[in-house]
Amino acid sequence: MEQRRNLLKATVLSLALAAAGFAAVPAQADDTIKVGILHSLSGTMAISETALKETALMTIADINAHGGVLGKQLEPVVVDPASNWPLFAEKARQLISQDQVAVVFGCWTSVSRKSVLPVFKELDGLLFYPVQYEGEELERNVFYTGAAPNQQAIPAVEYLMSKDGGSAKRFVLLGTDYVYPRTTNKILRAFLKSKGVADADIMEEYTPFGHSDYQTIIAKIKKFASEGKKTAVISTINGDSNVPFYKELGNAGLKATEVPVVAFSVGEEELRGVDTKPLVGELAAWNYFESLKNPQNQKFIAMYRDWAKAHNLPKADSVVTNDPMEATYIGIHLWKQAVEKAGTTNVDKVIAAMGGQSFQAPDGFLIKMDEKNHHLWKPVFIGEVKADGQFNVVWKTKGPVRAQPWSPFIAGNDKKKDVPDAQ
Predict the structure, then answer these.
(1) How far apart are CA 12 and CA 10, in angstroms?
(2) b/e string for 68-100 if b means 16 or more Cβ within 10 A?
(3) Which one-letter DSSP state was computed for residue 386?
(4) 398: Cβ contacts below 8 Å, ≥ 6 apart
(5) Which of 184, 366, 396, 377 is nearest to 289 (CA)?
């Protein structure tokens, strides 16, 4: 009788909590593992991030079709932080606390990543971040599958200064006004200074997110470039501002042979919205291009094209793949492997199992997660824009390069720790 009375009380309490909106949410159903996808599907960053959401869903579906993880199906939970940095933190908290996901794949801008970091640390969540960034960070709860500065920015500038890259002597550092461009340009200024470039030969300009009028800035660049020395532009413009920037570049007749532009946040997806014919020869530095020829890449491209058609994505007949999409694909597979090695989705055990995980990537290399610094070893490619919006690779490293999260060009970084678990 007492047991029945207690059961009745528990049932009444559960119903009352549910009615009040406090129903307990299980970490996951017995046969599924919840996985969070945290990307802007609206606002200024949607032009770049929407494709990463689709890549994550595609990769999860493919893993499920091949048996899932630990015998369970992955259940994606998609949220839209809408290019709103405080909202990223709210959505991250929702994914971890309410939806109780085992891992989150997401963010693009560094300001969005910085916004969610306190949440992942407080709640001991796990984030895989798939985009190139400024470094100067190493967090226990984050795995960085995009490039650190020595895997993109520094090699690109070295190329511009080389004979093959045009022997540039003056540099325009042009970016969106937030942490990634400003910190990257701080590193690049120090690097250029170490190579003997004077401050007078460096022009630095920033525009806000969503900026659309580049006429004045292009005019300033043309004037700066007319002052005698070979000039190159290093662009850390992010989001949909790239479309008006490149359109104005074409309108102004500023050709790559005169003043080359190397971009760190413009890939195949961003160029879909631009007439690329006037931009032939402009440069981008990445760790992957769709134009790379190898079996893994052909499989990756075909998989995404099939996904786009099957799910009626916009302009499905002309979808492209790019570097952050590849980094998303790699990150999900490495997490799967670490979970299977650990035998659990427990964050501490997955973190311990991640170091040394390797994967045959669409970039053509067997890449691995570094054993100590939570970053991937990545190859570096520099490509020239072709008339069809693809890239012709003009320079590459011999193989994957180990990331330097702490740039040697910033004072005091030689004392920074390498192992986030020990911090």
Answers:
(1) 6
(2) bbeebbbbbbebbbebbbebbbebbbbbbeebb
(3) P
(4) none
(5) 396
Backbone angles phi, psi at 263, to 5 degrees: -110, 145
How does pLDDT run across 283-340, given as a tens digit for each residue?
A: 999 999 999 999 999 999 999 999 999 999 999 999 999 999 999 999 999 999 999 9
State both tokens at 277.
């014919």
* Residue 65, token pair as written in the block: 């079709």
**Nearest to residue 92, comparing CAs of 79, 76, 110, 75?**
79
Residue type, 354: M
Q: Are 320 and 294 in contact (CB under 8 A)?
A: no
- Nearest-Å Rg of the Cα atoms of the chain is 23
In tens, the pLDDT along 178-194 reads: 999 999 999 999 999 99
Q: Which amino acid type is present at position 113?
A: R
pLDDT of residue 228: 84
Distance from C-alpha of 418 to C-alpha of 422, rounded to nearest angstrom: 9
3-state secondary structure of 136: coil
Cα–Cα distance, 323 to 61 (Å, whole number): 20
In the structure encoding, which two tokens stand for residue 80, read together? 């839209």
d(CA 97, CA 123): 8
Lowest mean pLDDT among 70-79, 263-272, 377-386: 263-272
CA distance 175 to 180: 9
DSSP 8-state secondary structure symbol assigned to residue 97: I
